[in-house]
Write a structure and sequence with these properties.
heterodimer; A: 161 residues; alpha+beta; Sufe protein. Chain: A; 4 helices; B: 271 residues; eight-stranded antiparallel sheet; 12 strands
Chain lengths: 161, 271
């Protein structure tokens, strides 16, 4: 399978940042001005380098192609169905190099097991963003009004590679 | 939206000018209560625009015929017993025949005749209409095309030599993220309970109910894939087993606890 040119991927990720930052249930603990890695749907590859520590990003992360700056930032708190969690994402230039779960809250202790099952999926999905290079989104059954905030709308702004 | 605009410009710089090929033509059409996105390759701009006009007409006609939101639509009148099958457009019979097929193939997990208020083919119509719109583009001579509407994708051809169309599967709990990626050769449909709430009716109880939060089905027909995805979202593992027994169709299920299940024949990336 061919990979898309890096420029396209970086552009995609940057396009999502700041545009697609909504959640089904807003959580008050969000800090304004933080980077929102949860808004980078498709970034990429395996999070093996857990210690790619760099200065915490103060402003929104813009993944510029060619940059070698290493930054990490905590994302917005995310609802995942059985509770909330927070993800820290480390970016080296335009690549996500690490994703870690920094906080996990579940409604009841018995949910813990469920959460541990769900988290690997969440992690792989954040990581998948770097290799996404997709042509369409399946399952985005948005209304006309919600379309402007959808992943499909972001894709439609991009030219075909 | 400024950042998205900048992203588009960047991608254009990277992707402009495949040798000997007209540029891709894109369009979005607001229809059927959602937005349908088109990408057409291999047609000149004027021919592509004409074909897209016709494809849009196909979607609007389907909406006029099948919409349950429009009290005067043929299917609405059929449900109220104000008209008969012989008096409505022949497409209605065609769709109901596909519904019967999907009911059998899904072991009853998709059943338009078990819906409250009379027969309701909505779970199949969207895919059917998107598929017909794609076929308009194929007949117009396009080399390849993708039509994406309301969670359903129909494609033909290849986006680039040696590449297949790639679809991101909407993450069930994060609207800005993907649960995975699949390659699509004809049709893919994802049905879920995450965007419009618990709108799925369990045909075995007549009440809202679901055993999956997200169900994706791929196969040769988008009409059937759409209905079968609804079946898997409602029926969970039992319905997924039914899909696995079908020739040419494959399924991917995300259960309410976040765990996943697959039939053979579908590769959800990354693994």
């Amino acid at each position: 399978m061919k990979r898309a040119p890096l420029l396209v991927l970086a552009g995609t990720a940057a396009g999502f940042v700041g545009v697609l930052t909504f959640h089904t249930r807003p959580v008050s603990a969000t800090t304004p001005g933080q980077a929102q890695p949860s808004a980078m749907p498709s970034a990429s590859s395996a999070a093996t380098s857990s210690a790619a520590a760099g200065p915490a990003a103060a402003g929104p992360t813009r993944a510029a192609a060619g940059s070698t700056l290493v930054r990490s930032a905590a994302g917005q708190i995310v609802q995942f169905g059985y509770g909330e969690l927070n993800v820290r994402v480390t970016v080296n230039g335009s690549h996500i190099t690490a994703v870690s779960v920094t906080d996990l809250q579940t409604a009841e202790p018995t949910s813990q097991q469920i959460s541990e099952q769900a988290i690997p999926m969440l992690r792989s999905e954040v990581l998948s963003a770097q290799s996404a290079n997709v042509n369409g989104i399946s399952g985005a059954t948005f209304t006309s009004r919600a379309y402007v905030q959808s992943l499909q709308a972001a894709l439609d702004k991009l030219n075909v590679k | 939206m400024t950042e998205a605009g900048a992203a588009g410009a960047g991608a254009g710089a990277a992707g402009a000018g495949r040798a000997g090929q007209p540029a891709a033509v894109k369009r979005t059409v607001d229809v059927m209560g959602t937005v349908v996105s088109f990408t057409v390759l291999g047609l000149g701009e004027a021919a592509a625009e004409t074909a897209l006009d016709q494809a849009g007409d196909v979607l609007r006609e389907a909406d006029e015929t099948f919409s349950l939101w429009k009290p005067g639509s043929p299917v609405s009148r059929l449900r109220r017993g104000e008209t008969e099958l012989a008096q409505v457009p022949p497409e209605v019979s065609e769709v109901l025949e596909l519904c019967r097929m999907a009911r059998t193939w899904s072991r009853g997990w998709f059943d338009p005749w078990a819906m409250p208020g009379g027969v309701d083919p909505t779970g199949l119509v969207k895919g059917w209409a998107v598929e017909r719109a794609r076929d308009v583009l194929r007949r117009a001579g396009a080399a390849a095309a993708l039509v994406s509407g309301g969670g359903d994708l129909a494609v033909f051809g290849q986006p680039a030599p040696g590449q297949e169309w790639r679809a991101g599967i909407q993450h069930p709990w994060r609207r800005d993220a993907l649960a995975g990626i699949i390659e699509v050769r004809a049709a893919a449909a994802t049905s879920g309970t995450y965007e419009r709430g618990p709108h799925l009716i369990d045909p075995r109880t007549g009440q809202p109910g679901h055993r999956g939060v997200s169900a994706t089905v791929t196969g040769p027909s988008l009409a059937l894939a759409d209905a079968l995805a609804t079946a898997v979202a409602v029926g969970g593992d039992d319905a997924l087993d039914a899909i696995g027994a079908l020739d040419g169709y494959a399924g991917y299920l995300i259960r309410p606890d976040g765990s996943e299940a697959y039939t053979g024949g579908i590769d959800v990336l990354p693994r």
